[in-house]
Amino acid sequence: MIPSIDYLLLSAALFSIGAAGALLRRNALIVFISIELMLNAVNLSFVAFARQLGDMTGQVYVFFVLVVAAAEVVVGLAIIVSIYRTRASVDVDDADNLRG
Amino acid sequence: MEQVLFWLMAVVAVVSALTTISSRRPVHSALAFLVTLLSLAVLFLLLSAQFVAVIQIIIYAGAILVLFLFVIMLLNAQSGEGPQIKLPSQRPLAIALALLLFGGLSYLLLSSPLGAARPLPAGMGTVQAVGGILFNHFLLPFEVASVLLLVGVIGAVVLTVKEDEQPK
């Protein structure tokens, strides 16, 4: 059996890669995919802890994370589409009307 | 066998995640993310979470990613990134912060002992067992989740209706 720490370290690596993508990229769609990557990394640690603790509650949480991710993707992509309609760009640097 | 599968899938997941955030074209990013999702589904199977592995493939790879590809092709945005003028130090700062995050997380994980894994309950991760917990202990959150999805559907429709198409 693989020790849970390996899964948790992999989850930490994927989360950091997702965070790097969200900070690094300026294409709103790729920033969005990076956020999904972070959600998936958290799902992996939920499932790893579920096995470590012998308790299925962690797997049920993954289900709820999926529901929230689905709702988030739908609304977020709708926002990106309407930003693209008004600015013809998906660069997050172009959407800076609220910039101080 | 399990070791080989774990390390293979871990490497595939990390490499495809790096491809996701580094490729120029959004379509390539989305397809690399699909590979990450599938390797994570295999890891869920290794962790005896069959139900989670299946919904990972059906919902994430089947529904959410298709939505992403749909929007990417609808917008037909190539790289979508102009020359970097707003924040010139973005790239080194982002990489440094992500490495700092990974360092901090792995330090915390390695310095906190997990102890031996508890024995798994019977039927761990099957649809029957997960459904039993979902509909007994998490019934209210389950119903609230359906309201959240409804809000998502209505929000998407409201956000994307064009001004001149709005009903009088």
Protein architecture, described:
The complex is a heterodimer of chains A (100) and B (168). By secondary structure, chain A is mainly alpha-helical. Chain A is 78% helix and 0% strand. Chain A has 3 helices and no strands. Chain A has helices at 4-24, 28-53, 57-87. In chain A, helix 1 (4-24) runs antiparallel to helix 2 and helix 2 (28-53) runs antiparallel to helix 3. Chain A starts with a helix and ends in a 13-residue tail after the last helix. The relative contact order of chain A is 0.13. The model of chain A has no long low-confidence stretch (mean pLDDT 90). With 168 residues, chain B is an all-alpha fold. Among the domains of chain B are: 1-79, NADH-ubiquinone/plastoquinone oxidoreductase chain 6, subunit NuoJ (Four Helix Bundle (Hemerythrin (Met), subunit A)), CATH 1.20.120.1200; 126-161. Chain B contains 6 helices and no strands. Chain B has helices at residues 2-22, 26-46, 50-75, 90-111, 127-136, 139-160. Chain B is globular. The mean pLDDT of chain B is 88. Classes of the chains: A mainly alpha (100), B mainly alpha (168). Chains A and B meet through helix 1, helix 2 and helix 3 of A and helix 1, helix 2, helix 3, helix 4 and helix 5 of B.
Q: What would a concise description of this structure say?
A:
The complex is a heterodimer of chains A (100) and B (168). Chain A has 100 residues and is mainly alpha-helical. Chain A has helices at residues 4-24, 28-53, 57-87.
Order of helices and strands of chain A: HHH
Please tell me what the overall shape of chain A is. Answer: elongated
> How far is it from the N-terminal to the C-terminal residue of chain B, by CA?
64 Å
Largest interface: A-B, 75 and 86 residues
Largest sheet of chain A: none
Classify the oligomer. Answer: heterodimer
What level of helicity do the residues of chain B show? over 70%
Which stretches of chain A of 5+ consecutive residues score pLDDT under 50? Answer: none
Q: What's the CATH topology label of the domain at 1-79 in chain B? A: Four Helix Bundle (Hemerythrin (Met), subunit A)
CATH fold descriptor of chain A = Helix Hairpins
Helix content of chain A: over 70%
What would you call the structural class of chain A?
mainly alpha
